[in-house]
Amino acid sequence: MQLYTDPRGQAYQQIIDVAVQHSEYFVLGEKFGDAPDVDRSRYWAVLNRLEPYLEKKIVIDGDDQEDVSRIRETYRSHAFYTAGTYYWYRCCEESGQLLKQVADRLSDWIYPNLPEDLCFVKKGGGDYLYSIVHERMYGMEVTEDEAVKLMERIPGLFLKLKAHRNLDGLLDDAIRHKTDWLYISRHGLTELPDRIRKLTELRELEIFEQDVYRLPEGLFELTKLESLTIMSAELEAIPASIQKLKNLKKLNICCASSNRPAPGWKPKPKEEISLNRIPPEIGELERLEELTIQYTSIQTLPPELEKLTSLRYLNLGMGMIKQKPAFLRRMKQLKYVTVAQDSLY
């Protein structure tokens, strides 16, 4: 069963205790190979501290993918997905305490600061708790009932339940567990509920609902947001309130998107898409690094875009802008720019 995001702080501490109780070993990987020279002092210090609990090492040759598959099937663990050296440590109160001392969440277990991808393996094989940090994959091998009980016991542990097919159930748990990441899709929404404003810890929000036409003001109260993705068939506008998202680094808006296309479904011609302007207030997003706005009837860009000194990536593809405005050439920090008019068809 997958987690929406990895537990942090007190939730991380509690889930480590639970995993130690239900597992025989925990596994950490060394997979950096010929990585550039970086400061690995903390990395080696943690390996040294874990040495008293080391039970065995498994080395998987990078030239033998069959070896990777064989070992993964043998232990039935997400830990073994690539070549590397895998350290197996005994689960006990002392080793668990060390894991809690050196990290604050599962995503901390990543090179070069720490060995990679903390996984807990049950006696006889099979994961109890796993992480693949580069892919942002976290999960537990528990039943739905067990997951519900764990979530009641550990605020901040946010597992994907069948009950979350209902948007109210999803938002109830997202708010309670103060999630920092959320994906909303396939709920048949025509508008976003205003109580989305209660997701005060969100850093990343993805919404893929083809019939959502307007964005509520409550969305722009999520001032910790760093990444916002909106995919729909059509948006009415980008509200001026976008300027409130001062921590936003990535904004991705794609019209002509359908998450449940009927046979023969086609998007409107882009000339008929309501989204026809970028508000000048977007220039207030000082931390914005990536801006994508695709398939719209936008024909001109506000000069306030030049104020985005952190912007590195600008994608206005499949739009109606005929030529790049001169001010884009003055934005020397831009690494990628497209204003292509290519259509979907």
How would the blueprint of this fold be written?
Layout: H1 10-22, E1 25-30, H2 41-50, E2 54-60, H3 65-75, E3 84-90, H4 93-102, E4 116-121, E5 127-132, E6 137-140, H5 144-153, H6 167-176, E7 181-185, E8 204-208, E9 227-231, E10 250-254, E11 290-294, E12 313-315, H7 326-330, E13 336-338
Parallel strand pairs: 7-8, 8-9, 9-10, 10-11, 11-12, 12-13
Antiparallel strand pairs: 1-3, 1-4, 2-3, 4-5, 5-6
Features of the shown structure:
Leucine-rich repeat, LRR (right-handed beta-alpha superhelix), seven-stranded parallel sheet, alpha/beta, 345 residues, globular
Structure description:
With 345 residues, this protein is of the alpha/beta class. The chain has 2 domains: 10-149, no CATH class; 161-338, Ribonuclease Inhibitor (Leucine-rich repeat, LRR (right-handed beta-alpha superhelix), Alpha-Beta Horseshoe). The protein is 20% helix and 19% strand. It has a 7-stranded parallel beta sheet, with no helix packed on it. The chain has a 6-stranded antiparallel beta sheet with strand order 2-3-1-4-5-6, sandwiched between helices. Helix 1 (10-22) packs antiparallel against helix 4 (93-102).
